[in-house]
Amino acid sequence: MKAMILAAGRGERMRPLTDQRPKPLLEAGGKPLIIHQIERLRAAGFSELVINHAHLGGQIEQALGDGRALGVAIRYSPEGEGRALETGGGIHHALPLLGDGPFLVVNGDIWCDLDYRALRITPTDLAQIVLVDNPSHHPDGDFALQDGRVTDAGSPRLTFAGIGVYRPALFGACAPGAFPLAPLLRAAIAAGRCGGLHHRGHWLDIGTPERLQGLDTMLRKR
Questions:
Q1: β pairing state of 48-53 and 2-7
Q2: Domain range spanning residue 57?
Q3: What global pTM score does this model have?
Q4: Mean pLDDT value of segment 113-128
Q5: What ranges make up the beta strands (E) of 22-178?
Q6: Strand order in the sheet with 103-107
Q7: pLDDT by residue (tens digit) across 19-66?
Q8: How many CA atoms does the CB half-sphere of 58 hold within 13 Å?
Q9: Environment class of 167 (CB within 10 Å of its CB; exposed 0-12, middle 13-18, buried 19+)
Q10: Which residue in 18, 148, 164, 183 could disulfide with 14, CB within 3.0 to 4.6 Å?
Q11: Structural contact between residues 205 and 162, judged by C-beta atoms closer than 8 angstroms
Q12: Whether the predicted pLDDT of 82 surpasses 80
């Protein structure tokens, strides 16, 4: 299975840190956020990675190269400076690089200690997503989980972690361009074709300088 790291976001809430550097290259614990992701993916057996980029994306390619120095093979899906395609559009744009089978997608601006080998997608599902307990900045959550199946109703509500395994067919009716992922997930949920995993370990959405500092402090204490 291939894996994709979403790295095209502008990082508006991280400004001014992201004015001259793309968000995935901001550092915590002495290394860029995207390196943390690559190392965890490699440890789980993922050797073929796809990374999309837009804002200052050339810096990402320069920093990571073809991935050999990190023990992986990296291919890039550039979206153009200032032309990020949102999550759904970015994945759709990268499909030719991801192959015909299921693939893992992780947000480049999260930190999570999930072992990606725990993810499984059933033969009939279009997606399996990871859910986490609601952080303070997102108290209402996104979905519920019942017997390993994601639902749009019920409780307790959980937050989508920005991690999922998807089949290309999830994007089968999509046209090129910018669009979000959430409506596609909700359609799969409504059709009974979305599984879920509740991760109860560490997960951080690194959306502000304060959260980045908090992650840096946590990692340096370790």
A1: parallel
A2: 2-221
A3: 0.94
A4: 95
A5: 27-28, 31-32, 48-53, 73-78, 103-107, 110-112, 127-132, 144-146, 149-151, 159-166
A6: 73-78, 48-53, 2-7, 103-107, 159-166, 127-132, 194-199, 149-151, 144-146
A7: 888 889 999 999 999 999 999 999 999 999 999 999 888 999 999 999
A8: 4
A9: buried
A10: 18
A11: yes
A12: no
